[in-house]
Amino acid sequence: MSASGLTDLERDLADAVDVDGLVRTAQELVRIPSWNGRETAAQDFMTAAMADAGLVVDRWTIDLDELSRHPSFSSEVERDEAIGLVGRFPGTQDVGPSSGPGAGASGPGRTLVLNGHVDVVPPGDDALWTDPPFSGTVRDGRLHGRGALDMKGALVAALYALRAVRATGLRLAGDVHLQSVVGEEDGGLGTLASVLRGYRGDGAIVMEPTRLAVAPAQAGCLNFRVRIRGLAAHGAVREEGVDAIEKLPTIMAGIRWLEEDRNRRFGGDPLFASYAFPFPICVGTVRGGDWASSVADHLTFEGRYGVAPGEDEAEARRELERAVAEAAQGDPWLRDHPPELTWWGGRFTAARTDPEHPLVTTVHAVGSAVSGRDLPLEAMTYGADMGTLATVGATPTVLFGPGDIRRAHRPDEWVAIDDLAAVARTLAVTAVRFCGIGT
Fold it and tell me: Measured between alpha carbons, how far is 82 from 65 in angstroms, rounded to an integer?
């Protein structure tokens, strides 16, 4: 074992990562717009990249009608097509089919899943970007563009980790499955499809931005919508109407009380200790009224509802429903005209893996050795595909990836190339330690 905490073989493997090739490939992928359900071109690119890396490629058209009937399905974007894609690095003594459903029968070692998504959120106003959103510009040691951070750069880092394993001639005892998925940003249908196709393992790493922290826990989230009714009147006699907009603070007071209460009850997990509100309730849109000189007879607001690992999701829903109903009781109009709460759109399941699980300890030890510092071990409060892998796929999962989520979903998104390299090297060595070396 070298002073860095890596064996000579592992150090050679880390050094074998082609960082220049990683950056070029990530640039090409970032330059492919893949938002609002238009993800096939990016999957075409990843199909070719996986084949070029020597992976056994399974590409299929997801049956969206069938998938939508699964209880864990959620989506906010209408799609004409969704492509599933998994590249498999086979372990020794592999007896599984080379592709298709069931591909992934492992060798004698553990099976490791690496998961990343090609879909991105809309770029917004191009004028707010220093470079065009899909430029893939490299400047000052950073890769810029929509998806560079979240999370095309990390997906390509995983691909180059497996290229490095192959380049060194190592055979792993178990399989590695590289899942390139669609639909993560609006609910995770791509990962659900991959899991249902049989791509599960003894451990999974989702390469979301964690600042290189190892995250064995992820909060869940649900989307909700509340409609408040008022009574229309001409603005000249507004006192004869009931303004739905003026009722919003009453309902928000109840929601804020619930947020405080929930975080007091569920916020004791030490993995979430760095967050004041690990399970926030965020109202993101408000729309009301139809005419400037009319009393608004309706208001609708939509939000995101944080859910704790281990929490009963149905009871979590009921808590918000009760909070809204109880807040309405304090207002005579709302008492007789109660707000309507509905659940809609994307949702992410909370998940937690034991910090002592071999997957967690391996990623943490290797990542710390590669980066030369003791990496943080903490939870992430955003939703990601960890929940689907851990619950539907029964696969212990961690989040681990380059960059800070705070730079995602905004203009001038970027990720540091040094972070991409660190993730690729960590994943390569982790694959060897976790899956074992074959004969």
Answer: 11
